[in-house]
Amino acid sequence: MILGVEKHTFATRLAQRGVDLYKIANLLGHKDIRMTQRYSHHCPESLRDGVQILEVGHNLVTVGENRNVSNA
Questions:
Q1: Domain boundaries in the chain?
Q2: Are residues 9 and 40 in contact, defined by beta-carbon separation less than 8 angstroms?
Q3: Which of 1, 30, 48, 58 is the 20 to 30 A CA-CA neighbour of 12?
Q4: pTM over cut 0.90
Q5: Rounded to whole angstroms, how far apart are CA atoms 72 and 41?
C-alpha cells in the first residue's frame, strides 16, 4: 500500500511519463478519477510534451479576435 507523500510522488512520476490517469487510478485503488487527479501533478515540461504531440503533423485551427476560423 502506498501512503501519504509517497502516493503523490508515485502518481506524479507516472503521469509525467505519460501513463494514463485511469491506469494510475487502478494502481492506486481509486474508484473515482478525481481522486487520482489530486495525486498526480504535472510539471510544465510534461504538459509541453502533450501540446507538442498535437503540433507535430497536425494543422491546428485557431479562432481569432474577430471570431473567424482560420488555419494556424
A1: 4-62
A2: no
A3: 58
A4: no
A5: 30
